[in-house]
């Protein structure tokens, strides 16, 4: 009973006692005060978290912080070409900043930086009091640590809440990073005007120097800019800037960074800032560089939000295949070809129209960003015009005179003189002429040109029009044009793959096909309506570019096989319809694709992926694209080390039989020697190639080159227009290639095209295709006997098997005679071989 009674008594006592005691406490005043204080503390904690601590950025971001850096584009030899950035910045380590520069910024912004723990309490209290008494939000008084917190982790909101968050975050930063690390972040990311972020970029923007080359007064000037760069711009507020700079110099002396002599000399120094300038870029290769930019944006994105390797913030180092000398040759050759055709056709009109008001002509001109770089041509804007002359202005602010006599060419398609058509706001091309300027005409006709290394697929040069700043459309990669007869080597390569030989006889005669009830019968004809020449060899048909022989060969091979090879060699992304007209170049393609297809022929039929970018490195030097990139060990050795030469692993697939590809290369060498491109013969080196003229003619083409480089180009109007009956690839496009080759191949070894294993070089009569035994090829390219390339057991034979069975004795006698005479193998050994 006692055991049961005791728990009941204890429970009853505890409940009643607690209730009584709590009732008594509630009547005590001090208990009520404590309860209210606890409630307020809890609410304060919740409010503190909600207002200041919630969503506060992690300081860990600062440890891994990487400021936005420009992407730098370089040529194949490492030469800087272009950089892309929204913020111009060069990142330095703390040790690379001069001590006087650090002293200048500390004197101007935070002289107790190395003593405080992140917050300037007196300054913060003073700013808060001033804000409360004036009714405005607090400004200034932020330490460098607080500025880092604001600029890197917070917003630019001006409020008491943000100030408190800034102070809390500054405490965290000081506990996580050293003072030197905080200063490094600050000096690398601070905005200092003129699109310069960080002190190194600002040194270049204001003084055209590196920070290590600046003087003491220049250090002091940069230190005043964080307060508001626009307030101290040298072009508008030079006096105010000098006064503020001198104040910083005084603070540096007071803080012990400089002595009196240094102070006096610095106070007497002028500001010394250079005029504002836009970043200078070499206009060479504008189309190439823009194509690189497009590819980078497709791969990595444009802005910081796209990822760590974005084009405008990722700090990428991009090595391209760009060759400056080859680009110069291609650019000059294509431009002069365009001007040569366009000359005498009248003024093509202004490049742009840029209306302006008052004295705003310079900004109106600069907004169009036209920077002509052809010879001494310059872009200008018409400021005003009188009866005898026009005043013109240039991007550098200078002006000049365009007299009436310097603009007397007729206006194309309208009549009247160009001078009469000029009006203020016209952006025109001019060139100096004896103290004044003369009007120039940008050609209406355009075109594209690409140069590729057929051994690797690397694009060495690209020109997509007359000038990238005038015509942004890249005709080398974006213009879809009909290739005309330049497609024929691909057609005949398909025929070679399917049993034909270079000596196969094809009839150059009428050929018609029934296309169905809707389209009826279609009859093909040679270019210019030339009549058929009867049975001829395949080689002759290619060299003379005979349409009738091409469709005969395509029909015999099967158009499904022909268009399949066109797709495999990259001429078309998707398979063309199997119509015979595509064998004559009816399908659309680009210069880039045609050049790559010819490069595949030279590369023994192995696939090539045309590339402009060799590799991309991130800001730390790691290659991030291509993903499977591997360095070629020992490839850059200055001297041979006696070991086998390094050879990159070939991973490309075979898209065309190697022997068929070589046969076509060997045949198209004949186009240069005695075909439609004999203008190139005096270059005196092995060259393969093919001219092309599309229907109209609307476009003229040439694609070809040597084992080191394949180049291709087309010329035509953007809106396809008849070029005139005289226009042909051999008379307009081939001379452009020749002008290019004379410069680009200068100094290069004269190399033959190499034949793959199995090719047999046989003497034939180039007219009949029959094998020749008693004569040898001579130096005359039009000689009757030539070397021809055959696959094993496909060369022409002297006798048929029936002849051998009917006259075995005579055959034995002939064999004996042949053994006594000279043999092909003897000749090949004596000449060092045929490659």
Can you walk me through this structure?
This protein is α+β, with helices and mostly antiparallel strands. It has 26 helices and 22 strands. The strands form six sheets. Strands 4, 5, 6, 7, 8 and 9 form a six-stranded antiparallel beta sheet that branches. It has a five-stranded mixed beta sheet with strand order 2-1-3-16-17, with no helix packed on it. A hairpin with a 3-residue loop joins β5 and β6. α17 runs parallel beside α19. The longest helix has 25 residues. The protein is elongated and about 125 Å long. The N terminus and C terminus are likely disordered.
What key attributes describe this structure?
835 residues, alpha+beta, five-stranded mixed beta sheet, 22 strands, elongated, disordered C terminus, PBP_transglycosylase, carboxypeptidase
Between the first and last Cα atoms, what is the distance in angstroms? 121 Å
Shape: elongated
How is the biggest beta sheet arranged?
Answer: 6 strands, antiparallel
- Oligomer kind: single chain
Strand segment tally: 22
User: How much β-strand is present in the residues?
Assistant: 5-15%
- Please give the count of helices: 26
**Low-confidence parts, pLDDT < 50 over ≥5 residues?**
1-6, 800-821, 825-835
Secondary-structure-derived class:
alpha+beta
Percent in helix = 25-40%
Report the C-alpha radius of gyration, rounded: 39 Å
Q: How confident is the prediction overall: mean pLDDT?
A: 86
């Amino acid at each position: 009973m006692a055991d049961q009674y005791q728990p009941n008594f204890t429970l009853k006592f505890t409940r009643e006692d607690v209730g009584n005691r709590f009732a008594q406490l509630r009547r005590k005043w001090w208990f009520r005060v404590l309860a209210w204080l606890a409630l307020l503390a809890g609410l304060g904690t919740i409010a503190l978290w909600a207002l200041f601590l919630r969503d506060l950025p992690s300081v860990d971001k600062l440890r891994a912080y990487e400021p936005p850096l420009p992407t730098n584009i370089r040529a194949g030899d490492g030469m800087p070409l272009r950089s892309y950035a929204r913020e111009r910045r060069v990142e330095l380590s703390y040790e690379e900043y001069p001590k006087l520069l650090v002293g200048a910024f500390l004197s101007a912004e935070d002289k107790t930086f190395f003593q405080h723990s992140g917050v300037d309490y007196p300054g913060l209290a003073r700013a808060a009091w001033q804000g409360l008494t004036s009714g405005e939000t607090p400004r200034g008084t932020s330490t460098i640590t607080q500025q880092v917190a604001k600029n890197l982790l917070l917003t630019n909101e001006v409020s008491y809440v943000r100030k408190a968050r800034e102070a809390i975050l500054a405490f965290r930063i000081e506990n996580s990073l050293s003072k030197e690390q905080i200063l490094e972040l600050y000096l690398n990311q601070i905005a200092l005007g003129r699109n310069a972020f960080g002190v190194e970029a600002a040194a270049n923007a204001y003084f055209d120097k590196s920070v290590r080359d600046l003087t003491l007064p220049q250090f002091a000037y940069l230190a005043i800019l964080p307060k508001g760069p626009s307030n101290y711009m040298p072009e508008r507020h030079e006096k105010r800037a000098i006064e503020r700079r001198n104040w910083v110099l005084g603070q540096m002396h007071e803080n012990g960074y400089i002595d009196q002599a240094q102070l006096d000399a610095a106070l007497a120094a002028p500001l010394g800032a250079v005029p504002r300038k836009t970043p200078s870029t070499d206009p060479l290769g504008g189309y190439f560089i823009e194509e690189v930019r497009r590819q980078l944006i497709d791969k990595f994105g444009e802005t910081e939000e796209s990822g760590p390797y974005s084009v405008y913030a990722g700090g990428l180092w991009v090595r391209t295949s760009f060759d400056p000398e080859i680009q110069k040759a291609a650019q000059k050759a294509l431009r002069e070809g365009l001007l040569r055709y366009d000359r005498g056709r009248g003024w093509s009109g202004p490049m742009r129209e840029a209306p302006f008001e008052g004295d705003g002509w310079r900004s109106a001109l600069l907004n169009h960003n036209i920077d002509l770089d052809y010879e001494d041509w310059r872009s200008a804007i018409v400021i005003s015009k009188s009866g005898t002359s026009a005043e013109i202005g240039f991007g550098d602010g200078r002006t000049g005179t365009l007299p009436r006599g310097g603009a007397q060419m007729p206006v194309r398609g309208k009549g009247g003189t160009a001078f009469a058509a000029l009006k203020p706001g016209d952006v025109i091309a001019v060139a100096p002429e004896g103290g004044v300027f003369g009007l120039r005409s940008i050609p209406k006709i355009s075109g594209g040109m690409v140069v590729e290394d057929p051994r690797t697929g690397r694009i060495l040069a690209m020109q997509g029009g007359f000038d990238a700043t005038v015509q942004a459309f890249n005709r080398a990669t974006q213009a879809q044009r009909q290739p005309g007869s330049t497609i024929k080597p691909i057609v005949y390569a398909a025929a070679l793959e399917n049993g034909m030989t270079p000596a196969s006889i094809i009839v150059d005669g009428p050929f018609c096909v029934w296309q169905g009830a809707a389209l009826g019968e279609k009859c093909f004809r040679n270019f210019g309506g030339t009549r058929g020449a009867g049975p001829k060899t395949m080689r002759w048909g290619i060299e003379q570019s005979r349409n009738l022989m091409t469709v005969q060969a395509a029909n015999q091979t099967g158009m499904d096989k022909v268009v399949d090879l066109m797709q495999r060699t990259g001429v078309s992304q998707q398979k063309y319809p199997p119509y015979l007209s595509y064998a004559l170049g009816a399908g659309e393609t680009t210069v880039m694709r045609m050049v790559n297809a010819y490069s595949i022929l030279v590369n023994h039929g192995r696939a090539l992926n045309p590339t402009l970018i060799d590799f991309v490195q991130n800001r730390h030097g790691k290659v991030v694209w291509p993903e499977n990139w591997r360095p070629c060990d020992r490839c850059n050795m200055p001297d041979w080390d006696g070991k086998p030469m390094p050879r990159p692993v070939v991973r490309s697939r075979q898209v065309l039989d190697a022997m068929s590809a070589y046969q076509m290369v060997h045949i198209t060498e004949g186009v240069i020697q005695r075909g439609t491109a004999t203008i190139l013969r005096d270059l005196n080196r092995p060259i393969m190639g093919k001219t092309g003229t599309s229907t109209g003619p609307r476009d003229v083409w040439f694609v070809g080159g040597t084992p080191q480089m394949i180049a291709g180009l087309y010329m035509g109007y953007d809106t396809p227009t008849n070029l005139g009956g005289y226009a042909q690839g051999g008379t307009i496009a081939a001379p452009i290639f020749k002008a290019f080759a004379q410069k680009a191949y200068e100094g290069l070894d004269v190399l033959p095209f190499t034949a793959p294993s199995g090719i047999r070089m046989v003497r034939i009569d180039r007219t009949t295709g029959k094998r020749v035994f008693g004569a040898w090829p001579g130096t005359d390219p039009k000689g009757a006997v030539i070397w021809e390339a055959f696959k094993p057991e496909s060369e022409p034979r002297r006798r048929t098997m029936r002849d051998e069975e009917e006259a075995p004795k005579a055959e034995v006698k002939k064999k004996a005679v042949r053994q006594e005479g000279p043999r092909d193998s003897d000749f090949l050994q004596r000449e060092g071989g045929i490659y």
